[in-house]
Specification:
alpha/beta; 9 strands; globular; 14 helices; 10% strand; NAD(P)-bd_dom_sf; Rossmann fold; 45% helix; oxidoreductase activity
Length: 395
């Protein structure tokens, strides 16, 4: 697949533009930003609408399903893999030879799926190498237990795909038992904690990748590090605010993690947009919007189409080179691949390095980790977390 490295110069120009704007803002000494400006908000929505209307055209060069190279030597964890995009990702990786770990809240549903896939695959080759491990992203204790159980195998992990997410459209604000707004926890805090705690296995699997399935909706998101749960009166909570903010937080966290992982670790961090996809999120939509989904099938991707950017990010050999190139050029955000499997520029707000680092520290605080957790794990030291059991170590 062409177009990764060739996009770097264009992205550099965009970064220089953003840096100049940030410098101007600092000189003006404006008060703390509390929300997106209306121009940024409008620009973000224009981007969302453009993606919905033209995603099928810009991705017309991609095959469906996406052909994958033989990946018999890869071990991949896929969260949220019993439905939607995650289901397609897990199945296609397994059919290409990977050892797939389905990290799911409902193990029985996953086991039923595996049996179905094995029956359909019978006679086409070796049995699919898939297993199930329980993971509930609404419980940070569950995240720690999962990571400890996987790390205890002392085996490699080559690809972690943080796919699971929620968008509870129209629902009132809900909080997990850990006390965090559910969009924030499922879409950002739990995947962030999982990514860090699995670093020992990712180091053993080096070169390895962390793939975060993001969303074009991060373009209309805003992160207030003093109000991550969106409970203060200055911002009214809606499911859209919760979702878009959590997805922007994920991009920011990924960018800082990308910078903190040295090249010699061999671990790369990538965010991907699957496009606008018809998945189980439609179950939470109003009947009118669901009718709209059925009326515009041409514009909306199927889960199989929506899985392509993630599968590309997980398997294409150019992706690590591209990530390292961005790191060498001090690109302020991690690699971000659009639904057509080409580099794209995350939102202007995602380039706010100062906010990203504040959000990183806040995320570590909320997940019970110390600020030097990445450095300690890279050195093979034990780390502690207030959730789950007592400690996790690199080897």
């Amino acid at each position: 697949m062409e177009g990764l490295a060739s996009s770097t110069e264009e992205l550099k120009k965009n970064v220089e533009h953003h840096e100049k704007k940030m410098m101007m803002k600092k000189k003006k000494k404006k008060k703390k930003k509390e929300r997106l400006g209306w121009i940024e908000w409008l620009r973000g929505w224009m981007y969302v609408i453009h993606e919905m209307l033209f995603q099928r055209i810009v991705a017309s060069h991609l095959q469906n399903p996406m052909p994958l190279p033989p990946i018999n030597d890869l071990t991949c964890i896929v969260t949220g893999s019993t439905s939607g995009i995650g289901r397609e990702i897990a199945r296609q990786l397994a059919e290409s030879g990977a050892h797939v770990v389905m990290a799911v809240r409902n193990p029985k549903a996953a086991l039923d799926l595996i049996q179905k896939w094995q029956n359909e695959w019978s006679g086409k080759g070796l049995p699919l190498n898939i297993e199930v491990m329980e993971l509930d992203l609404l419980s940070l204790d569950s995240v720690v237990r999962f990571a400890e159980a996987y790390n205890a195998r002392m085996g490699p992990l080559h690809v972690l795909i943080n796919n699971a997410g929620i968008f509870s459209i129209g629902e009132p604000q809900n909080f997990s038992k850990d006390g965090y707004e559910e969009h924030l926890q499922v879409n950002h805090l739990a995947p962030a904690l999982l990514s860090i705690l699995l670093l020992p296995s990712l180091i053993r699997g080096s070169p390895s990748r962390i793939i975060n399935v993001n969303s074009v909706m991060h373009y209309v998101g805003f992160v207030d590090t003093e109000d991550m749960n969106v409970v203060s009166p200055k911002r009214k909570f809606t499911s859209l605010v919760g979702y878009s903010s959590s997805k922007l937080a994920q991009v920011m966290f990924s960018s800082v993690l990308h910078k903190k992982l040295p090249a010699e670790s061999g671990i790369n961090v990538v965010c991907v947009s699957p496009g606008i996809v018809h998945t189980n999120v439609a179950r939470d939509l109003s009947k009118i919007v669901q009718a709209g989904y059925r009326l515009i099938p041409y514009f909306i991707f199927s889960p199989q189409e929506g899985s392509r950017s993630t599968l590309f990010a997980a398997t294409d050999p150019q992706v690590p080179e591209y990530c390292e190139l961005l790191k060498a050029d001090k690109w302020p955000v991690c690699a971000f691949l659009a639904q057509e499997c080409r580099p794209t520029n995350p939102s202007e707000e995602a380039h706010n390095v100062e906010t990203a680092y504040r959000m990183w520290e806040k995320t570590l605080e909320m997940t019970g980790l110390h600020s030097d957790v990445v450095e300690k794990l890279l050195e093979g030291d034990q780390i502690t977390c207030r959730y789950g059991a007592d400690s996790i170590e690199a080897n």
